[in-house]
């Protein structure tokens, strides 16, 4: 074994460890792996950075722009009230409607974007019907995963594997080449979701628990004339230093001050809206100069045109808020809003919020105006969950956007051109026709996913260059050589979906694709069934909330626990594994 090969395996082991431990964000870990390959001399800079101009990365970026154009036009929002009306009939109807529509959209549009659209609609139905979000959101996420496997552009994993195949001199996959097999798995999955999952999903999760619990921490204090904190900065006050109380807003002379910072001065007569543990309220009575007030005066101010209300939001995939802290981002001052509570990985956090590292899928309770909330949404920092407002459909943009999207799909499926070229032309047309402004096109791209894709591609490149892929394939062929190709495919599917539940789908696909191509060559069988197995196994992952971005997104709003995913997702993964072992070879013979 050469030194470069040993270094390659060592870096990959480090990468897998970092993926599992989640010390850094996935894209940061991916770029770190790429840098290690370059610094160690395994890859030269051109090879290391080749992931950024890899067809899979460029195609994915263009697809993001095309999807963004369709979403920006509001054409999908036009269906929202019809969905809500149907879903209100009964829980089973809601389950079927949301899953079918989510799967359909996800086949052609980025699945995380589809789930982000469906979340507030589904929560609206839950609030108005009394359905527990826990009974609806996980199936929506799973439906998005099934829909994404049905077409080449349904998920980035499909694009990555197909581009890898072309890079190895193999025929790339067509737009609908594996749709029949994927639809068979979708039917199997939907039967489980509709018939079995309602028996396993949590039934008594309270949708408003975060709001209710946080409100218990909010009270109002009036600054009396004998208060020792008068004319002191908030950062120097006893309120902050001795009692660790957060000041959210100040009512002063009839005006509500919200743009607060540590340098804001406390004045006599101020009414402070503060956040504190309930047990601290009794201690406040001992503070000279502060009086616990009712909420009427601040409520009157907040009922003005610039009303400050409480909203539930979620940090979506790719949001710049992820992996930062409220303090490091100066959130209150920058966005003129305050965070009252955070639900992270199932835990409700109400203390020391400014020092908590935010993650994708975190649910936040924020206090602010509607205008500031809209500003956060426009910057793709959050998705609002509290309420769903139908956006006006601009048909002058919607019709061309849909036509461009359909054109991208048809051009690739009819072999008029490659998916890379059709997606590139589609993205360009979205800007030239005015459907998206250039700035909006940039915002439509999930750059975190792009960087992650470019980073993980370096692992496959290093395995190929050092002969690691062939070595692993040779080991598998010698170990499993006495078995039938069907059994080998079965085991590869198992390894792939287990790996995806531990690390990311893109990292697993980047590692497995060159291996299975080399393995097929050694076994002298078609590589097609192995590649499809990797595609499906990397996308159809249901066992943990971190296995796929859509699972992460529904984790907090559904008030799930980790075990909920294990209980519902593990049987589904096993069923899909068994079904795929028969379905894939049927449509893709060895």
From TrEMBL:
Transmembrane parts of this sequence: 6-24, 31-52, 58-77, 89-107, 142-160, 180-201, 399-432, 444-463, 530-548, 568-588
Record domain RCK C-terminal: where: 207-290, 298-382
Compartmental location: Membrane
Family annotation (SUPFAM superfamilies): TrkA C-terminal domain-like
Annotated Gene3D superfamilies: Regulator of K+ conductance, C-terminal domain
Topology within the bilayer: Multi-pass membrane protein
Domain of life: Bacteria
Keywords per UniProt: Membrane, Repeat, Transmembrane, Transmembrane helix, Transport
Name this polypeptide is given: SLC13 family permease
Lineage, uppermost ranks: Bacteria, Pseudomonadati, Bacteroidota, Flavobacteriia, Flavobacteriales
């Amino acid at each position: 074994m050469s030194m470069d090969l040993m270094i390659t395996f060592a870096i990959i082991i480090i990468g897998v460890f970092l993926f599992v431990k989640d010390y850094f964000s996935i894209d940061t870990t991916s770029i770190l792996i790429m840098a290690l390959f370059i610094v160690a001399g395994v890859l030269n800079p051109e090879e290391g950075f080749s992931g950024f101009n890899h067809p899979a990365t460029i195609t994915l970026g263009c697809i993001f722009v095309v999807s963004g154009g369709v979403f920006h036009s509001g054409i999908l929002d036009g269906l929202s009230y019809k969905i809500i009306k149907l879903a209100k009939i009964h829980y089973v109807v809601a389950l079927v409607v949301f899953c079918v529509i989510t799967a359909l959209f996800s086949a052609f549009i980025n699945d995380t974007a589809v789930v982000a659209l469906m979340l507030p609609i589904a929560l609206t139905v839950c609030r108005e019907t009394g359905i527990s979000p826990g009974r609806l959101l996980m199936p929506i996420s799973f439906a998005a995963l099934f829909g994404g496997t049905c077409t080449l552009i349904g998920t980035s994993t499909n694009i990555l594997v197909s581009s890898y195949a072309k890079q190895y001199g193999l025929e790339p996959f067509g737009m609908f080449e594996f749709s029949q097999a994927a639809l068979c798995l979708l039917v199997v999955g939907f039967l489980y979701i509709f018939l079995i999952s309602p028996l396993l999903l949590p039934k008594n999760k309270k949708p408003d628990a975060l709001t209710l619990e946080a409100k218990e921490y909010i009270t109002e204090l009036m600054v009396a004339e004998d208060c020792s904190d008068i004319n002191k900065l908030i950062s120097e006050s006893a309120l902050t230093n001795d009692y660790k109380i957060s000041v959210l807003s100040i009512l002063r002379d009839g005006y509500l001050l919200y743009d607060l910072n540590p340098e804001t001065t406390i004045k006599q007569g101020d009414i402070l809206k503060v956040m504190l543990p309930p047990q601290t309220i009794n201690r406040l009575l001992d503070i000279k100069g502060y009086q616990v007030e009712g909420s009427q005066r601040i409520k009157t101010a907040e009922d003005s045109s610039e009303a400050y209300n409480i909203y539930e939001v979620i940090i979506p995939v790719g949001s710049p808020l992820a992996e930062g802290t409220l303090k490091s981002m100066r959130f209150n001052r920058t966005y003129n809003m305050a965070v009252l509570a955070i639900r992270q990985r199932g835990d409700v956090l109400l203390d020391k919020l400014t020092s908590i590292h935010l993650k994708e899928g975190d649910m936040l309770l924020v206090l602010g105006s509607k205008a500031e909330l809209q500003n956060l949404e426009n910057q793709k920092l959050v998705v609002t969950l509290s309420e769903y407002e139908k956006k006006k459909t601009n048909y002058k943009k919607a019709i061309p956007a849909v036509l461009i999207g359909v054109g991208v799909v048809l051009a690739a499926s009819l072999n008029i051109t490659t998916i890379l070229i059709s997606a590139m032309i589609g993205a360009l047309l979205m800007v030239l026709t005015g459907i998206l402004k250039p700035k909006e096109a940039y915002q439509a791209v999930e750059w975190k996913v792009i960087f992650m894709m470019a980073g993980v591609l370096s692992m496959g490149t290093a395995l190929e260059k050092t002969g690691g892929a062939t070595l692993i394939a040779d080991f598998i062929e010698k170990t499993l050589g006495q078995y039938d190709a069907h059994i080998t495919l079965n085991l590869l599917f198992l390894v792939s979906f287990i790996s995806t539940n531990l690390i990311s789908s893109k990292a697993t696909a980047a590692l497995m694709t060159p291996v299975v191509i080399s393995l097929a060559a050694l076994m002298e069988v078609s590589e097609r069934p192995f590649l499809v197995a990797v595609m499906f196994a990397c996308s159809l992952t249901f066992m943990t909330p971190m296995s796929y971005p859509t699972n992460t997104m529904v984790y907090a709003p559904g008030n799930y626990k980790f075990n909920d995913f294990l209980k519902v997702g593990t049987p589904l993964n096993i069923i899909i594994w068994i079904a795929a072992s028969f379905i894939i070879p049927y449509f893709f013979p060895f």
